[in-house]
Amino acid sequence: MKLSDIYKIGELAISYEVFPPKDDESGEKLSKLYSELEMLKKYNPSLVSVTYGAGGSNRNLSLDIISYIYDTLQISVMPHFTCICSKKEDIETYLKEIEKYNIENILALRGDEPKDITVCYRDFRYANELVDFIKTNTDLSIAVAGYPEGHIDAPDLDTDILNLKRKICAGGEVIFTQMCFNNDKFFNYLEKINKIGINVPVAFGVLPILSYKQFEKMMSMASVSIPKKLLNGLERYKENSDDVKKLGIDFATEQCQALIDSKLVSGLHFYTLNKSYSTSRILDNLGY
Length: 288
Hints:
Layout: H1 3-6, E1 13-18, H2 28-40, E2 47-50, H3 59-72, E3 77-82, H4 88-99, E4 105-109, H5 127-137, E5 141-146, H6 157-170, E6 174-179, H7 183-195, E7 202-206, H8 212-221, H9 228-237, H10 241-262, E8 267-271, H11 277-285
Parallel strand pairs: 1-2, 1-8, 2-3, 3-4, 4-5, 5-6, 6-7, 7-8
């Protein structure tokens, strides 16, 4: 099912993101991921997105996961695709590969420049160039990334929104946002993108906080503000992993319910970190 059908006006779509496990020679982590996805299937997700390493660093494993989700779980799947450090020829090859898997949707990203490769090609520098290339050469429906508080590399939010418009004008059909813990900032973002003529569906990125260590890592990698209430709770419970996880579930539930009530989002996109528990509890709390 294409994005245009999934993200219809007035219908809230639930989706998940997973990633290929690292350092998994035995296949144990991959088997665990499949079990976690089996548990999440009962909430009738509209799609599952699968990440893709810069320069194609985990291409084969991504394709294995894509095949499992589509063939075994029978859920629509949306592979990520990053263009940083990729040759045009490699992108063409990958797009032909995924056609074999009956893929209809793709999330087109610039990606972060990897630190562990010796050659980085510059055929594509920005995501809008990748979007344009995919739109011109395939029949894929294209999603793009949005950053409610601005991309960490952008000088300011307004500049980042102009970059978003370039991606939409190039053929982006749905926006999947980075995690955001402040609904007011998200609503401000929606107002800003609407003012410059961006009117495509927006799926809100939900990241359930699973541990204090994960929270610290997240804060070092993204431009995201944390409400005082949440920050105080994390500081209070940081030595107790179960309390941190419960806090993350409760906060995300409250935030998602407010977003649903607003009727301003087209979807909730859960960054599962390959685990089902917190996402399941949040969806249970929301009545799914």
